[in-house]
Here is the input.
Amino acid sequence: MNVAVMGHGTVGRSVVRLLENDPSICVKYILEIPEKCTEEKMVSDPEIIFADAGIETVVDALPGVHPSFELIQRALSCGKNVVTSNKAALANDFRALLDLTSENGPKIWCEATCGGTIPVIKEAASLSGTNEITHCYGIMNGTTNFILDVMKKEGREFTDVLLEAQRLGYAEADPTADICGFDVKNKVILLSSICYHGMVTKDFPVFGIEKISKEILDSLAAEGKTVKLLGISVRKENRYAIGVVPVIFDVSSLEANVPRNFNMFTLGCTNAGDVKLYGQGAGGDPTADAVIRDLKDVQEGSGFGRSYFDCDLVYDPGLLKGEGIIDKEKVSGTLEELSGLACRKNAFFAFLPDFLK
Ligand code: HSE
Here is the structure.
């Protein structure tokens, strides 16, 4: 199979390098900006890729919504399958992209969008075929988990640890997306939409780790607790609630012990119960491996198509109730109510959803 890889950053470079050892998949083109086209197969005009009938599948390893979203649209319109690691582009409007797929035509694969190497997208789709998934939550960002873990264990400063996360290839090109929760926002949108078979809203409470200090971590530790940045959603029939927020865990919990760039997802299923998935959530080779597994699945003929979203979901923030801490004060209410209060106070906010008590 001949493929084109759009983007030659941390993930794109790893995909190209790992595929050098795979005789069944040949990288024919790499889309790169003109000043970085240093190899024969590098092109800066995507139309060269779309016009080549020998390219059946395009790998999108670009960052950010644009121009990735438009390039995915164009690839699908030209009948090419899309394997993407770009959560921002997909979360922008997954439904619109699925509408460009067809039963016997191109499809979308997106394992590398959530949780780096962890096969959570595939499991969510599989489990949702035999169960109703009633909640999904998880540590979905390697950079922020790395920062919280290293700050806690090594007593190092936030900025210093962030630089290390960038050097290790965990952070986004603009690390604000990691720190302020926007990367988790994209992932929880995608994962929830796949778990619940419908497109969820983009308008819900999102918090990051920017207000978490060493002092806060120490005072939580004194009570046997810690905090992790989580993407969360819950669902009841066709209603759901969703958010991104630091969540308080007992130090003995599995989530509290997720180290470095690792992620952990939980899918709450009616028959299977809670299914947890764990692995490296960021980094070039782990994420590229998820892209390559998707390419193998392209060869098998699976993938997300337009019929996948068969549920009209209704956003109901009342479903996500719990307790929290705003600054040092204990509060209770829905995530949406408490997030309004925390924003007005511009204070540290951590939440404990009732379903996790
Ligand atoms: N910046 C992301 C993270 C990369 O740290 O999790 C993987 O999506």
In short: The two ends are 49 Å apart (CA to CA). The pocket of L-homoserine is lined by residues 116, 141-143, 170-172, 178, 183, 281-282 (CB under 6 Å). The chain has a mean pLDDT of 96.
